[in-house]
Amino acid sequence: MKALVLAGGLPQITLINELKSRGVETVLADGNDKAIARPYADMFYRVNIFDIDAVVAIARNEKVDFVITCCADQVLLVVAQVAEILGLPWYIDYETAKNVSDKELMKKVFVENNIPTSRHVVMAELDMEQIKELKYPLIVKPVDAYSSRGVRKVLNEAELHEAFDNAVKISRNNNAIVEEFCQGEEISVDIFVSDGKAHVLCVSNSEKVKDEDKFVIFRGRFPVAASEELHKKIEVVAQQIADAFNLKNCPMLVQMISDGENVSVLEFCARTGGAMKFLLIRRSCGFDVIKAVVDLTMGKKPQVVLSEPENKYIVNDFIYCKEGVFDRLEGFEELVEKGFLTDFHPLRPSGFVFSGQVNSSGDRVAGITVQADTLEEFNRKHRYIVNNVKVLDVNGNDIMRHDLLPDLE
């Protein structure tokens, strides 16, 4: 068999290895010829993976048995469309993929099905009359972007105009959503739907870089700080979403805001969280989401069997950089050997140019996992890690933003 894999990030390395373990030949397509998953695939095409015609041409030329991705938001829609054009298997049809990838369509379904979400307006051009009932602060975001690109918090009309113009430029269909800001803690809920039942796999906190108007994640923290009652409400909302979008067998990621008693849904997608989330899920409940996606695509129904977490605290931290040209990571392997780090994963290839800005998850250079059974043990390990690793540029300078990795509280 042969598979066309779209996107060449960290999760796709694991996906390619899973496919190859089953005897499947892998063709990788990505827009970056230095994609970190490239060395793992049998064949590589540099292509804009959002160019449907180009992806269809590759699939036909290579005579693939299926097209697949994992943990990638908007790429899900491409796979669904290409699979439908070519009559290939995929776990979600194109029409449903549109509803779960476009924030305008998604919010419409939320409102129609009484799923809690913030008041909002979708526009191609900013019309103050349409949003006169919305209260500041407001959130502005492109309707179809990902990785927090173009997401801004605004406090007044002048900021709104600037953020809206930027969001529309980023959006592929030139639309932006303006919504009321919900105060609270952001919760990331990973789910696997089996025969229509939403099984909650992992509930974690998404901690953001401290910034007045941007929302870039630097940490995924398990377990979430939530009461048993709040956990039950999360499960209810997860099932509401699966029912409203008629999802039968697929992964889901739901991003929520909680005030400690109730939740409001920011957005969701029929996929697993990106970067290292698949590892956090596996370590917190024993479920292998990437293996499950391969099973679904190859016609096998995964069994949702969950286990106890490996440790009380399981944390993915993401490392950002100052301005410079990335060369290598230093000190990480030694800390894995000493037991301070569970693992680390480069997210960008050598030679990647960092601007020094932290605008989206695309600005990460690497991710690490730290595990412990007490808060004190975690912070002891974490402080040692932050003080003993470096991200070196081509001139040998440490460009790591050590200041963006605080202790757990």
Question: How would you characterize this protein structure?
Answer:
With 409 residues, the chain is α+β, with helices and mostly antiparallel strands. It has four domains: 2-90, Rossmann fold, CATH 3.40.50.20; 119-180, ATP-grasp fold, A domain (Dna Ligase, domain 1, 2-Layer Sandwich), CATH 3.30.1490; 185-297, D-amino Acid Aminotransferase, Chain A, domain 1; 313-404, D-amino Acid Aminotransferase, Chain A, domain 1. 30% of the residues lie in helices and 28% in strands. It has eleven helices and 19 strands. It has helices spanning 10-21, 52-62, 75-86, 94-101, 103-112, 157-170, 228-244, 277-285, 289-297, 332-337, 375-388, and strands at residues 2-6, 25-30, 43-46, 66-68, 120-123, 138-142, 152-154, 176-180, 185-194, 197-208, 217-222, 250-258, 263-269, 313-320, 324-330, 343-346, 353-354, 364-372, 390-393. The strands form four sheets. It has an eight-stranded antiparallel sheet. Strands 3-2-1-4 form a four-stranded parallel sheet, with helices on both faces. Strands 5-8-6-7 form a four-stranded antiparallel sheet, with helices on both faces. A hairpin with a 2-residue loop joins strand 9 (185-194) and strand 10 (197-208). The radius of gyration is 21 Å and the shape is globular. The chain starts with a strand and ends in a 16-residue tail after the last strand. 46% of the residues are buried.
